[in-house]
Structure formats: C-alpha cells, structure tokens
Write a structure and sequence with these properties.
6 helices, globular, mainly alpha
Length: 106
C-alpha cells in the first residue's frame, strides 16, 4: 500500500519572490513581519496551511500585475477559489496593519 505523503515544493517555488517580483527581499520581509500574524493559517489534521510568505506573494503578484485569479492559480499551483480568498484576506490585513503608515504619508 502506497503511503499518501505530500510532495515537497520544487526549487522554483522557493525562489518565486526573487524571480517574479521587483520588490527587494528586505521589503518583502518587512511586509511579512508586519502582516504575518494576521495572514498565517494553522495546520489541520486534514491539510497543511498555506504559508504566510506564499499568501503574501500571491497578493503582491495580483496587485502588481492585475492578473486573473485563474492565471495566478496556475502560477502558484492552487485553486482559483483559494487565490481569491487569499487576495481578499491579505488585502484586508494590509489595510488594517498599514492604515496608519499610509495616512501619515498623505
């Protein structure tokens, strides 16, 4: 009987932020540290949660390019319903966390 194990992500998924974004890694880490507690999901016995870094990368890609959720679902290998949910959740977190910093710039 074959054991059902989750495959490890390929190397290109690990370097996705560096190759597909014009944002520096320092800026990405800053946003991740600020938003991490709000966008992190817990693992369940049925599945592992999508990491906060990947959730942020999906959202930044959507905001930067305006690609469709279907296109992003192929790029990040997740369903377009999940991509839609992630983008909305992370955008809400961005507004909540960075609201004061944005208002101070105006």
């Amino acid at each position: 009987m074959k054991k059902n194990t989750r495959r490890r992500r390929r190397w290109w998924m690990l370097s996705l932020n560096r190759s597909r974004s014009r944002m520096s890694m320092c800026d990405f880490e800053y946003l991740l540290n600020k938003l991490g507690p709000y966008i992190t999901k817990k693992d369940t016995p049925m599945r592992k949660g999508i990491p906060a870094a990947e959730r942020l990368a999906v959202t930044l890609r959507f905001l930067a390019t305006g690609e469709s959720f279907v296109s992003l679902s192929y790029l990040f290998k997740m369903s377009n319903q999940i991509v839609s949910e992630i983008v909305h959740e992370v955008c809400r977190a961005i507004i909540k966390v960075l609201k004061d910093e944005i208002q101070s710039l105006v």
